[in-house]
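This entry is listed as follows:

___
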Amino acid sequence: MATYNVAPFLSQAIRSVLGQTLQNFEILVVDDGSTDGTVDIVRGFSDSRICLSAFPHRGPAWVLNDGLEKARGRYLALLDGDDVWARERLGKHVEYMDRHPDTDLTFSLSRFIDQNGADLGVTSRRSANPVSFRGLLEDNVIANGSAVLFRREAARQAGPFDTAMAACYDHDFWLRIALQRPDNIHCIPEILTFYRRRPGQITKDCRLMQEMSSRLAEKFRAIRPEDVAATDARRNCNLSRFLAAVSFDNGDYRAGIRYLREGMRRSPLAFLNNRRTYRVAAALAAGMLLPPFLLERVRHWDAGRASPVDIPV
């Protein structure tokens, strides 16, 4: 668990691990210089399986690498300090990995929750198995680091998280695992992770995400130039749509429209053949045209239509 100023959410995150149906685990909390009492909350838990390491603030990739070095388990899983796991999360991933020794990384579906823990009604996309290196490069279907579990040996071969990357360091890590052998990344098509959307997240910074995504592509262009070239148009189209959605969340609707135009320019066919494009476009149009009270209904449209889920408390 990499933590940085997540005091309001941390107890729920830790309890969601302690309540797992699979109980043979260790929790390595690596704190990145929190100043809001996060460390004190960790120390308030008396479970001997929890190990805390606290560092000056350097960035999440640095502390994640410390966690990788200390981990003793056959499998490693990541959980951000503001996210939550379903009770069966670890057990189902471990069972799947045990039955599929040719798989090095699995990820489950994620349901999005807001900063208060309310269900936003949005679920990450189901993916056909296996997920190829090229497919993962084109579109990061894993969606967030709290949804993954991977073999410690695969992590060792991949090398550490890239501390030069202020964002997309997890996507970079998954891609390096994907390079190790064919067909080694699989999706578990169940909602086992609850991913919290809140102000201040790295993914809310459009300029940073765009810069780091470009750096990621150039990094792998030197290793697999044919795959990067083949995915350039679609990858940039997907990135533009993602940044448009983030702009909607940030309330910057005009920026969102600009990102959609860029996505259309990059790959018109891929842009128009994806339902997500129209959903984002409709949301941005609503943001520009509707009064605030109606806009809130648009924001919670999915939550009203989605099947209910039990979020651990």
